[in-house]
Amino acid sequence: MPGIRKARLRDLDEIVELWKRFMDHQVKLERTEGQNPLPRLREGAPDRVRDYFSKSIRSRHGFVLVLEDQGGVQGYTLCRIQKNIPVFEHDQIGYLSDIYLEEPYRGKGYSSEMWSRSLEWFREKGIQHISIRVLSCNPTAHDVYSHWGFRDLLVEMDLDL
């Protein structure tokens, strides 16, 4: 039976493989929806993201959950606490960076459970504002985040030079 738990350093290999599939999934979405291409990944991106996850697992400002089933990691959530721009009310804000589940685990409430646990962690840390970025070509994710109470706040635009 699937279970959700805090990530451990020994989960990093599996988390990085899931992250790669998450990136592939996003590229497929943008192609399907005819969106502008995502920024290209840097050389060595998997090693860099491994380091980022490692730091997040060990940091008091990071929170990583995994969905474990069939002896392996089938999904993950990455949350961070970040400094806010100093002109705004909250000195620190929460950032929900990623939620990714393998296809057979989607639509079964696991992402909502992971979000609930993440929200609890943010509250324990005294965070009063949480931000998330959603690809414009991912209406399913947008709908899920709206259901969780997120609202559209701004439109982020990109320009390659």
Produce the secondary structure layout.
Elements: E1 3-6, H1 12-33, H2 45-58, E2 62-69, E3 72-83, E4 92-101, H3 110-124, E5 130-131, H4 139-147
Parallel strand pairs: 4-5
Antiparallel strand pairs: 1-2, 2-3, 3-4
Helix pairs in contact: 1-2
What is the count of helical runs?
4
Domain module tally: 1
Text of the CATH class: Alpha Beta
Decide which structural class fits the backbone: alpha+beta
Order of SSEs: EHHEEEHEH
What's the overall geometry? globular
User: Which oligomeric state applies?
Assistant: single chain
The CATH H-level superfamily is Gcn5-related N-acetyltransferase (GNAT)
Largest sheet: 5 strands, mixed
Strand order of the largest sheet: 1-2-3-4-5
Name the CATH architecture: 3-Layer(aba) Sandwich
End-to-end separation: 49 Å
Proportion of helical residues: 25-40%
Q: Tell me the β content.
A: 15-25%
Q: What is the CATH topology assignment? A: Aminopeptidase
- Average pLDDT taken over every residue: 91
Radius of gyration: 16 Å
> What are the low-pLDDT stretches, counting only 5+ consecutive residues below 50?
none
